[in-house]
Amino acid sequence: MKLIIGLGNPGEKYEHTRHNFGFMVVEQFLKDFFPVEKTAWSQSEKLKSDVAVFDWQPKTGKAQKVILAKPLTFMNDSGLAVSLLASFYKVEHADIWVVYDELDLPVGAMKIRKGGAAAGHHGVESIIEHLKSDDFWRFRMGIGVTKQHQDSDDEKQHAIGRQTIKKAKSFVLATFGKSEQGDIRKLIKHGADALQMALEKGMPAAMNRYNTK
Predict the structure, then answer these.
(1) H helix or E strand, kind and range, residue 102
(2) Which of 16-20, 38-42, 145-149 has the highest mean pLDDT?
(3) Whether residue 157 has pLDDT greater than 60
(4) DSSP letters along 159-208, please?
(5) Cβ(71)–Cβ(78) below 8 Å
(6) Fewer C-beta neighbours within 10 Å, C or N terminus of the chain?
(7) Whole-prediction pTM
(8) CA-CA distance, 143 to 22, in Å (whole number)?
(9) Percent of the chain predicted with pLDDT > 70
(10) What sign does the CA torsion over 48, 53, 59, 62 have?
(11) Using CA atoms, how far apart are residues 26 and 116, in angstroms rounded to an integer?
(12) Which of 75-89, 95-109, 113-127, 134-148 shows the lowest mean pLDDT across its residues?
């Protein structure tokens, strides 16, 4: 069994913002690999999440249950929803995969890893706090701005690296610039494909294929 969680903020106001990249990836994953009539999300007040549950049948090997979730608790309290989901479905921490935006990676970059500190990401901080463990997998999707991705004078203050990005809170709650759209579409697709490969062939194969060198 795998619990795959995309992090973000609920509501139309945040739908296309950088901080909702986790939502975008898990939504794309469900659309890509399942028929339209089977891709509906159901809202669970008990689990404080939108949830989709299905059986994943790899090309070889046994099928396993996959719980796909988008917490409705807002980013900074993501851990509450994750802990409720993990407890209800009895999922081991090592079988929890979290997909989220990462300021310390440039737009288009991706890193998969297990464990470690939250590196200032409040959603991940909340998950570690509620699970009392960092022993879960992270799919870190780059949203940092580099010099080649600057659409306005306002964006010129942003540079890759959390420590050099000014007004980080307003930055992550902003939408992507026009020059970033191609990289964003590609990264969403790569994120969805990486989830599929991890389910099909295991995490080392996904890391080898999709981790940005």
Answers:
(1) strand 96-106
(2) 16-20
(3) no
(4) -SSGGG-TTHHHHHTSBPPGGGHHHHHHHHHHHHHHHHHHHHH-HHHHHH
(5) yes
(6) C
(7) 0.86
(8) 11
(9) 84
(10) positive
(11) 22
(12) 134-148
Residue 161 CA: distances (Å) to CA of 50, 56, 164? 32, 37, 6
**Alpha-carbon separation of residue 3 from 43, 102, 125, 127 (angstroms):** 16, 20, 18, 13
How crowded is the C-beta side of 25, counted as CA atoms within 13 Å?
A: 33
Mean pLDDT of 169-196: 84
Mean pLDDT, residues 148-165: 43
On whether the CB atoms of residues 208 and 132 are closer than 8 A, the answer is no
Per the rule left: phi > 0, alpha: psi between -120 and 50, beta: everything else, 99 is beta
Which residues are tagged catalytic? 19
User: 153 — phi, psi (to 5°)?
Assistant: -60, -35
Write out the two tokens for 75. Answer: 């980013």
Q: How far apart are CA 91 and CA 96, in angstroms?
A: 7
DSSP character for 61?
S
